[in-house]
Amino acid sequence: MDWSLIVQEWRLLPGMAVEVLTTPGILLMIVVGSTIGFITGLLPGLSAVMAMSLLLGSTFIVPADWGLALLIGVYVGAMSSGGVTAILLNIPGTPAAAATTLDGFPLARQGRAHEAIGVAFTGSMVGEFLGQLCTLLLLPVVAVLALMMGDWEIFLIALVGLTLAGALAGESPLRGWIAALLGVAVAMVGMDAIWAHPRFGYTPELVRGVTFVPALIGLFGLSEVFTVLRGRFPYVIQGQSGRVALHLRLVWEKIGTIVRSTLVGVGTGIVPGIGESAAPWLAYDLARRRSKKKEEFGKGSLEGVMAAETANNATSGGALIPALVFGIPGSGPTAILIAALFMHNIRPGPLLMVEWPGLVAEVVLLFWLSILSTRLVAIALSPYFIRILSSPREILLPVAASLGVLGAWAAGFTYFDVYAMFAFGIVGFILRRQGFPLAPMVLGILVGGVLDTSLRRALITHSASLGGMLVRPAGLVLLVVLLLAIGASIVSVTRRKGTS
Amino acid sequence: MAAEKGVEGDAQGLLLTGLGSAVFSVFVIVEGLRMPRPDPWGMIAGPGFVPLLAGAATLILSAWLAFRAAGRGGHRGLGRWLSESLGEPDNRRLLWIVLITGLYVILLGRVSFFVATLFFHALIFTYLKVDRPVRIALYSLLAAILVAVVLPYLFDMPTP
User: Fold this and answer.
1) Staple partner for A374: which of A34, A94, A189, B13, CB 3.0–4.6 Å?
2) Is residue A197 within 8 Å of B47, Cβ to Cβ?
C-alpha cells in the first residue's frame, strides 16, 4: 500500500468541495435523489435497492459524478426514513433499522414520536457524517486491517451479532436466541453456496431459497397488521404537530455513545454481508451497558434510538471501504454504486486512487451533501409524513399490508415470495404473542448464509490445525466478546429473576 | 396451580410454541444428516453441517423453554385453553383478518391486481367499520390506485 495515497485524497478534498458546490447539476441530483430515497424508505416493502436499481439506467445519460450524486442521495435518504417507519409503525423500513424499533416505538406510544424522530434524524446525520469522515481518514489503513479478517472472524462477527440481537431484543434471551436460530434455519433453504446442493429443495421455488425481503415484510409488517387489528380498539399515535427538530444538544450530551456507535458502525460495516445488520445491535448493547439509565432501554430510551441510528448510518461509511478498495459490495446499495462506477468505466479496486485521484474524496463529499439535503427534505416533509403515518391504524395498516404484498412481489416477481410473506406474517404473529422478538429472526435470515459459508470455509482451510484457527488474534478477541456476551446475558437473566 | 398469564405469553402458549419449534428443529436435524458429506472433510464441510448445528441448538433451547412452561403449569388444561382461545372475540376478529388477507394473496394472478387490491381494501375496511360506506369506497379506490397503479408505474414494475 502506497501511504502517500492517503494524503492525496485529503489534499484533493478542498478542491473537490469547490468543484461539487459550484456544479448545480450535482446539487440538483442530490436533492432529487434524497427526496426519492426518503419517500421510498417511508413506504413499507419498498427499499433503497429497488429505487437505486431503477435509477441506475438513467445515470448513463448524465456525467458519472451526477449519476453517483443521484444514487448516493437515494441511499442516504432511504437509510434515514427507515427509522421513521420503525418508530411510527413498528415496521423498520430497512433491516438495519430493526434495532430502532426497540425504543423508538415505545416512545411513539408514549406520545413522544416527534422527539424520537428528531433524535433518530440527529443520530443518523451525525453517524453518517462521522462514518464518512472515518472512511476518508482510514480507508487504506482499514482496508489493510480488513484483509486480516478471515472466514473464521467473519463467522464470529455474525455469531456475536446474532447472540446480542437475541439477548437484547426481548425480555428473554432464551426466546431471542430461539428466534435467531430459526432465522438461520430458514436461511439454509436453497442452493448451498459451496457444493451447490439444493437444501430443503422440495420445489423449484425452495431451491431458489427464501429471500429476506418477504421475510422482513411478513415478520414485521404483516404480523404488526394482525397484532394491532386483532384488538377492537387499536392504539393511537398522539403527540404534537409541526416540524421535527434536530437534537444537537443531545449530540454533545451523548458524545461517548455517538463516538462508540460510529466506531462500531464503521468497524463492522467493512465486513461484507453482515456489517449493516449487526452494527446497530452491537452499538445498542454498548450504549445500554455504558448508560446511567439502563432501565429505560427497551421501554423508550432516546439514547437507545440515538445509538442504533448512529451505528446504522455509520455502516455506509464502513461498507464503502471494501466496495472502493476491493470492489466487494458490503450491501445491496453499495453493489449498485459499484455497478454505476463500472458503467462509467471506473473500476473499483486497489488501483482506484491511482487511476482516479480525488474520486474517494468526491464520493465522501457527495455523502455529506446528501446527509444535509436529506435532513432538509425530512424536516420540510415531517409534518405531513407524521400526520399520514399517525392516521388511524384501521386505515393505515391494511394499506401497509397491500404495500407489503407489492414489495414481496417486487423482491423476485414470483407468487412464492408473496405466499412466503403471508406465511411469515402468521409465524411472526404467533411468535410475538408468545413474547418472541422478531428482529433476531430477521437478522438470522440475513446473516445465516454468510455464517454458514464462512464457518465451513474456515473449517476446510484450517482442517489440518483447528487450534491454529482458534488462536488467530482477531478471532481470539471476537471469541472473548462472544463468550462475554453469552455470559452477560445469562447473568442478567439470573439477576432479574433474583430481583423479582 | 393456575397457569401464569402475561404479555410475554401464557404457559400453555409457550409450551405449544416450544414443542412446535422443537419438532421443526428435529426435522432440520434429520434433513441436515441426510445431506451429502464431501470427501475428505466429511460432515463439517458438507451442506448439512450448519443446519445440523442450528437444529441441535434450537432443539436444546426449545426443549428448555417447553420444560419451563410445563413447570409453570402449561401442560394442564390445554384443551380448555385452546377452546377458550378460539372463542375469544379478539381471536375471531383476527381469524377474519387473516382470512381476508389470505383471500387477497390467493386472488393474485387470478384476477387483475387492481381489482384484487380494491376488493381487499373494500372488504377489510367494511369488516373493520372504518367509516361510512361511501367513504370506505373512496378509501379503497385511493389505496388501490396507489398500490396497483401509481407505484408500479413509478417503479416500472410488472404487477402480479
Assistant:
1) A34
2) yes
pLDDT of residue A147: 61
Distance, in Å, from the CA atom of A359 to the CA atom of B95, rounded to the nearest integer, reads 56
Residues of B whose CB is below 8 A from A175? 65
Q: Write out A241-281 in H/E/C secondary structure.
A: CCCCCCCHHHHHHCHHHHHHHHHHHHHHHCCCCCHHHHHHH
Cβ-proximal residues to A273 (8 Å cutoff; 6+ apart), any chain:
A330, A331, A447, A449, A450
Q: How near does any CA of chain B get to the CA of A71, in Å? A: 15
- Single out the residue of A148, A70, A83 nearest to residue A116, CA to CA: A83
What pLDDT digit, counting tens, does each position of A154-185 carry?
Answer: 888 888 878 877 776 666 888 989 999 999 99
**Hey, are the CB atoms on B157 and A410 less than 8 Å from each other?**
yes
pLDDT of residue B7: 39
Distance of CA A325 to the CA centre of its chain: 21
Mean pLDDT value of segment A372-382: 89
B33 or A59, which is more confident: B33
Contact yes or no for A200 and B31 at CB 8 A: yes
Chain B residues with CB under 8 Å of A397 CB are: none
Q: Within a 10 A sphere around the Cβ of A284, how many other Cβ atoms? A: 33
Instruction: Give the span between the Cα atoms of A117 and A108, in whole angstroms.
Output: 9
When pLDDT is cut at 50, 70 and 90, the band that residue A430 belongs to is very high
- Smallest CA–CA distance, residue A439 to chain B, in Å, is 16
The pLDDT confidence band at residue B120, using thresholds 50, 70 and 90, is very high
**Residue carrying C-alpha cell 437484547:** A168
* Contact residues for A212 (Cβ-Cβ < 8 A; gap 6+): A95, A442, A445, A446
Are B96 and B122 in contact, with CB atoms under 8 Å apart? Answer: no
pLDDT of residue A372: 92
Phi-psi region of A247 (alpha: psi -120 to 50; beta: other; left: phi over 0): beta
Q: What is the pLDDT of residue B8?
A: 42
pLDDT of residue A329: 67
Share of chain A above pLDDT 70, in %: 89
Q: Backbone dihedral region of B92: left (phi > 0), alpha (psi from -120 to 50 degrees) or beta? A: alpha
Least Cα separation, residue A446 to chain B (angstroms): 15
Q: CA-CA distance, B119 to A397, in Å (whole number)?
A: 16
- Grid coordinates representing A432 are 410475538
Nearest to B97 by CA among A432, A434, A393: A393
Q: A276 falls in which pLDDT band (50, 70, 90)?
A: low
| Residue A464: C-alpha distances to residues A57, A155, A469 (Å) | 48, 19, 10
Rounded to an integer, what distance in angstroms lies between the CA atom of residue A71 and that of residue A334? 10
Compute CA distances B24 → A21, A304, B12, B160, whole Å.
Answer: 57, 34, 18, 31
| Phi, then psi, of A198 in degrees rounded to 5 | -75, 105
